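The methods section describes the discrete structure representation at length, but only in general terms. What matters is that the chain and its backbone geometry are given together, residue for residue. Nothing conveys this as quickly as seeing an actual entry. For illustration, here is how one protein appears when written out as sequence plus structure tokens:
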Amino acid sequence: MDKILIEKLANRIKELRKINNFTQDELAFRAGIGRSTLGNIETAQNDITFSKLNKIAKAFNLSLAEFLNF
């Protein structure tokens, strides 16, 4: 994934997390991923797999299409 897309995705996750009043710990738990992994995703330090994208979308009760609508 290119850096600009990774940064947009990171911002989308942070925005949704704050709207839903989730801490990183809570979102990571709901998504079934590690807190440090989520932190790296939110700071655009890590590329993200499709399966993790889907897990995060489900944690927000969004379809993948809704989640990626940014």
User: Anything to note?
Assistant: The mean pLDDT is 95. Residues 3-65 form a domain with the 434 Repressor (Amino-terminal Domain) fold (CATH 1.10.260.40).
